[in-house]
Amino acid sequence: MESLSLFWQNTGIAQVTFGSLLMVGLGTLLLVVAIRQGLETIFLFSLGFAAILANMPGSTLADPGGMLYTLYEVGIRDGMLPALVLLGLGILADFGPLIAMPSLLFVGAAAQAGIFVTVLLAMTLFSGFGPSFNEMQAAVIAIAGGASVPNLVFAADRMAPELVGVAVVAIHVAIVLLPTLQSLLAALFVSEQERQVVMGAMRPVSPWERILFPVLLLVTCLLLLPAIAPLLAPLAFGNLMRESGVVGRITTGLSPAAHSGLLSLATLLLGLAIGGRLTPDRFFSLETVSIILLTIIAFGVGSASALMMGKWLYRQSAGAVNPLLGAAGVAVVPLAARMVRKLGAENKPPIDLPAPMLAYALATNMAGLLSAIVAAGILLSLLAGKSW
Fold it and tell me: Which of 57, 130, 349, 367 has the most CB atoms at less than 10 Å from its CB?
């Protein structure tokens, strides 16, 4: 009987808690969304699966020595997995349209207004009647509002690692709401006449311009913000490999999908590492609701600012720039760029935006990603002496 009692105590059934069941349910929901909706499929799929593994009754996978714990320590503590994700993104990125029209950097930069507004809101809005956030936590929540998961994971582990799982989920809740949010903002800020603008073909970009762009981008930014080297260097290196032809030589004889293999694998491992941090003690709280709300506000402020910057470029270019490009300023690559086509289809009459417009939208999306990295670097630099 003593042996049977010991066996029963070590079963998962005997260790079931209400919190663990809720987290397993959350992980299952993430899996369903990833499979049925196709939204950030690889990352959400691995995130949900890891959340189930970490919270199954009796599971030790997320405890010290466990697989998920070790993956987090090895892949995120030193910034390896975020760097690999950005390296893979750099290999796939085409900065040609951004080089052809560098003014789109202003749209991407304007989209980061949500980050700095959220820092102030996180430190002041909830201090009187809800959870209070210190400056490190406020900075992490603000970076979540920048919509880049690699940026968030890198910064959160250095400033407020206890928020990394919740903040990643908050980003994806905001992404689900992004189409509705941007449709409302576009209807509010962009007139039908402005929506009808068809942008002309972009100027030809020489191979040397493409090669020099990641080099100059890296040197310029690192001279001003060394804190973003672990984020910007892999992105620039990957793009330099692409434009110089190194990637083609490495993958000679492989399928075209080999170029995206690194990004897919790194994204999968990143989701597994973060999913192990989704625990009931931190997730089901008023603090989580506040973080999700602040992230949605950051998305809204950033999208509105980018649309307004698009209108400013429309006026400065005498009507040659479609303000809907502002919808692509949020650094959700490439979902935000696809929003431009969706918003164009909502016109009366609907219009199918031509290929050059979509290329400019992708350029604006990449400008938003670069600006989000810079914004994260500013916050890291301001708090470097207190957090590192």
Answer: 367
How is residue 318 written in tokens?
Answer: 């005498």
**Structural domain includes residue 169:** yes
**Preceding peptide of 334 cis, ω within 30°:** yes
Handedness of CA 140, 149, 222, 99 (dihedral sign): negative
Q: Are 331 and 351 in contact (CB under 8 A)?
A: no
Interatomic CA distance for residues 43 and 147, integer angstroms: 14
pLDDT tens over the chain, length 388 residues = 777 766 556 665 556 677 778 888 888 888 888 887 655 678 888 998 998 888 888 778 888 888 888 899 888 887 889 999 999 888 888 898 899 999 999 999 999 999 999 998 888 865 555 567 888 999 999 999 888 889 999 988 888 888 888 999 899 888 888 888 988 998 899 888 888 888 877 888 899 999 999 999 888 877 888 888 888 999 999 999 888 887 766 655 444 555 567 788 888 899 899 988 888 877 777 888 889 999 999 999 999 999 999 999 999 988 888 898 888 888 888 788 888 877 876 665 665 555 677 888 888 999 999 999 999 988 888 875 544 4
Has residue 383 been placed in a domain? yes
- Residue numbers of the domain that contains 296: 97-250+282-387
Number of domains in the chain: 1
Distance, CA of 88 to CA of 120 (rounded, Å): 33
41 contact partners, CB below 8 Å, separation of at least 6 = 34, 35
Asked if the structure places residue 108 within a domain, the reply is: yes
The H or E element containing residue 126 is none
Residue pair 60/10 in contact (Cβ under 8 Å)? The answer is no
Nearest to 87 by CA among 213, 214, 212: 214
Cα torsion 306, 325, 290, 55: sign: negative
Q: Which residues of 8-22 are buried (b: 16+ CB within 10 A; e: fewer)?
A: eeeeeeeeeeeebee
CA distance 235 to 218: 9
Which residues touch 58 (CB under 8 Å, ≥6 apart)? 10, 11, 12, 14, 15
Per-residue CA distances from 260 to 71, 84, 197, 359 (Å): 22, 12, 33, 19
Q: What is the pTM of this model?
A: 0.87
Contacts of residue 66, defined as CB under 8 A and 6 or more positions apart, other chains included, come to 59, 60, 276
